[in-house]
């Protein structure tokens, strides 16, 4: 969700937008919810702090109401997926709890409204508060093991998160430093869901921040839940180092150089694309008939374990962390670990004293 203050209320659904003009003091869902203040907005929604005037004994007084744009209301699967997750009850590890959902009529059309818990600091903000903008290895493990729990749940439902990064991993209570994390057993309240979809659905391929995009996104080779595993590997590296692993230069259009991005994947992972090129709808954009890059001929292999040492991890820590990241960053998604397999990885066994 964007940290900027204002969304353009004039944009319509035809412009892939159409925001709802909520205001503090306004009432939603036939007077049940009183809007208090804006929490933030993104390209597909605004989110508001509200008071539930007709709450049940087991529901919270204050809630976050995510009001989707008209465009997102028509095109997003978020609401039915959250309803499905709610049905899991105690098995919905680290995933959002949908308290209520309803529609509001606005000047541009109907808006889906999702009532969720109010949450606090996100994982990226917490990382950036650290002196070196990175986190100790044992703290990273505490977070990663819980994110994997959420991915196991989504995978069992055939749901692709598609937008897994630090801004979407949230704490319910104020976190000040790593001492607070250890005192609270490193508890993440929620892996927020913004643009989920089901395996097998036709979908715009550019679904995640460019630095986290899996090779199958760039190559337009079809998506599975293994996309989320790739993003987890990238995020693990970022938490440990404070930097993106993949950071291709920008072209004159302002878009990232995707061929350089793919080349970096080869250099850092040391794996190959396998059958991915055979399934790619964009192969000819990057490769010749023999599978060579069209514009890149020189490669400089740079193993992840070596990069981690440059970021001041000990050699032992770097080797162990790199082994986990490597399971996430196999270029061929059929060779990439599943969330369930990652739960059993040696690197995570010590997260809770195992």
TrEMBL record:
Signal sequence range: none
Binding-site list for ATP: 66
The UniProt record lists the keyword ATP-binding: yes
EC number: 2.7.11.1
Single GO term (MF): protein serine/threonine kinase activity
Keywords carried by this UniProt record: ATP-binding, Kinase, Nucleotide-binding, Serine/threonine-protein kinase, Transferase
Annotated ranges, domain Protein kinase: 33-348
UniProt-listed InterPro entries: Kinase-like_dom_sf (IPR011009), Prot_kinase_dom (IPR000719), Protein_kinase_ATP_BS (IPR017441), SRPK (IPR051334)
Catalytic activity reported: L-threonyl-[protein] + ATP = O-phospho-L-threonyl-[protein] + ADP + H(+); L-seryl-[protein] + ATP = O-phospho-L-seryl-[protein] + ADP + H(+)
GO biological process, one term: spliceosomal complex assembly
Name of the protein described by the UniProt record: non-specific serine/threonine protein kinase
Organism, as annotated: Dacryopinax primogenitus (strain DJM 731)
